[in-house]
Write a sequence for this structure.
């Protein structure tokens, strides 16, 4: 149907694709990233306007649709808190997926008799779109704690999932080879329902700590679903944009898996043996040495080089503004302050950076794990705030630990480690942390925000 | 012929995507995700065609729903990305003020 669309429209789609590419390219540099995003948005506008010229017989449904969508979109984007960004992205992924599913459905409803190629693409748009939507909704519910973040398992879960996948593929083949048959429409509806079921069953057994991987993967799927729609309506701009997003999601998925020292199949199907009786864990010997805020102040006051390791616990306690203030005080006191950010700190890739940026931490101070680790021996004080597993030396020292091999921030190699922690409860991985009993470690118990504020007032009292 | 061309574009775009994304620093991965997420709302082009096909009521409803979801995806995606990127500030710029 788009075989002979006008040359100007074709040209506009090329411009849109180029703008998307430039937009992503500019994201590589923080100072140009915002302009890059604007370029990408401009590309979307160009594509939208161009398609208006070729798409429509009637605008009666389009205008209200655009208005409603824009209104909801603007309100949601303004209202969302930065700590809630992972679930926001999950929802948006899901909406992209369901949109692709519905477009596929409409195309089939309107014109069941297409070429086999188009029908297969249509099947894929519905399949991937459906999984993306329901999977994202489950991820959203887990991240916003509407349902428990713990893995939800039932008997023969893998068998059920495999059976769903197999039936979708079989029904899909039947459907694609004969889309005009009397049984094809019911089969199509069945494929829709099974795809939605697969998204739910696929994500429900994955624990809250693994959600960053799931969001990244669903991000990729939402792009691939868009791609499939591109093959249905034979439009290059959808294929280019969808493929870019698909590639992006896959790369991020890989990065997250690597940072957790897990393979993708292990995240999706294996799960971490949460709470399991893993025999090989470090028997934590020695005692923890608590420290008072006053003593912690004296240690920090004398420090020339400080590394702060923030974890999600800091964000939960809403302590990032207080932490930034403490960081500034330490700098004014003559110390070099850096923030060491583990790739899986937070609830999605790069989440901790956003939370710290929101608290006005300058991005030059945000250091990646690999940049900090080599110089950790020269650091006077490493301040661990709400992080646990990502600083657990067992990942380096104990081959039988379930997190062995996971890249960590070597907090224990600093001269002194001060760990801010509410209690001695283990982290997400549910294992003991041998850092807490090391000779150079001091535990500063209490709510992260209150403790940091106490430290700040110690500094202020001293300068007055 | 057309199909071959579309697949050709698809494969090249995947490779281009991998090249582009690997250059994005990890500190910008969240905005990268929400930004590419907005791009995946490109399915809005298909939704427009679907909502405006002028076929029966069912087709219009499916198309319009698709359009609403895709529009939320696009609008919200770009706006939250912009909100986040606006927060990433440089030190020297700050001091110049």
């Amino acid at each position: 149907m788009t075989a002979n669309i006008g040359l100007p429209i074709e040209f506009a789609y090329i411009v849109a694709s180029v703008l998307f590419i430039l937009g992503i390219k500019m994201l590589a540099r923080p100072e140009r990233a915002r302009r890059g995003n604007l370029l990408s948005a401009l590309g979307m506008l160009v594509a939208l306007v161009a398609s208006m010229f070729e798409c429509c017989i009637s605008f009666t449904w389009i205008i209200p649709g655009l208005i409603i969508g824009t209104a909801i979109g603007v309100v949601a984007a303004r209202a969302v808190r930065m700590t809630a960004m992972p679930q926001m992205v999950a929802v948006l992924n899901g909406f992209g997926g369901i949109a692709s599913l519905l477009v596929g459905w409409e195309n089939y409803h309107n014109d069941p008799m297409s070429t086999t190629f188009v029908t297969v693409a249509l099947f894929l748009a519905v399949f991937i779109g459906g999984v993306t939507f329901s999977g994202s909704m489950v991820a959203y519910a887990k991240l916003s704690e509407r349902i428990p973040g713990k893995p939800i398992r039932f008997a023969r879960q893998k068998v059920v999932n495999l059976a769903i996948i197999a039936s979708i593929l079989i029904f899909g083949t039947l459907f694609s080879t004969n889309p005009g048959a009397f049984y094809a429409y019911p089969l199509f509806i069945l494929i829709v329902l099974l795809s939605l079921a697969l998204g739910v069953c696929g994500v429900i057994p994955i624990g809250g700590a693994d959600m960053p991987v799931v969001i990244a993967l669903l991000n990729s799927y939402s792009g691939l679903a868009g791609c499939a729609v591109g093959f249905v309506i034979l439009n290059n701009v959808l294929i280019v944009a969808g493929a870019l997003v698909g590639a992006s999601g896959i790369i991020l998925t890989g990065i997250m898996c690597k940072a957790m020292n897990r393979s993708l199949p292990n995240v999706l199907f294996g799960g971490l043996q949460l709470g399991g009786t893993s025999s090989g864990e470090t028997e934590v010997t020695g005692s923890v040495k608590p420290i008072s805020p006053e003593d912690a102040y004296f240690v920090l006051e004398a420090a020339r080089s400080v590394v702060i390791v923030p974890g999600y616990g800091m964000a939960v306690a809403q302590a990032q503004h207080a932490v930034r203030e403490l960081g500034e005080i330490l700098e004014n006191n003559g110390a070099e302050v850096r923030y060491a950010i583990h790739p899986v700190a937070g609830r999605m890739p790069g989440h901790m950076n956003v939370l710290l940026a929101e608290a006005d931490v300058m991005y030059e101070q945000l250091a990646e794990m690999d940049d900090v680790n080599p110089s950790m021996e020269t650091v006077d004080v490493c301040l661990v705030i709400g992080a646990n597993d990502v600083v657990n030396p067992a990942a380096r020292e104990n081959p039988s630990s379930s997190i062995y091999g996971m890249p960590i921030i070597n907090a224990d190699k600093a001269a002194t480690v001060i760990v801010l922690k509410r209690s001695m409860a283990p982290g997400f991985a549910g294992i003991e942390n041998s850092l807490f009993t090391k000779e150079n470690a001091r535990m500063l118990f209490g709510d992260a925000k209150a403790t940091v504020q106490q430290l700040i007032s110690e500094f202020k009292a001293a300068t007055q | 012929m057309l199909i071959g061309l579309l697949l050709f574009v698809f494969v090249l775009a995947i490779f281009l995507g991998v090249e582009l994304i690997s250059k994005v620093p990890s500190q910008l991965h969240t905005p990268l995700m929400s930004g590419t997420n907005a791009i995946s709302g490109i399915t809005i082009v298909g939704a427009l065609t679907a909502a405006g096909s002028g076929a029966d009521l069912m087709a219009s409803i499916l198309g319009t729903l698709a359009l609403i979801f895709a529009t939320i995806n696009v609008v919200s995606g770009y706006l939250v990305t912009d909100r986040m990127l606006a927060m990433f500030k440089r030190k020297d710029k700050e001091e110049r003020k």
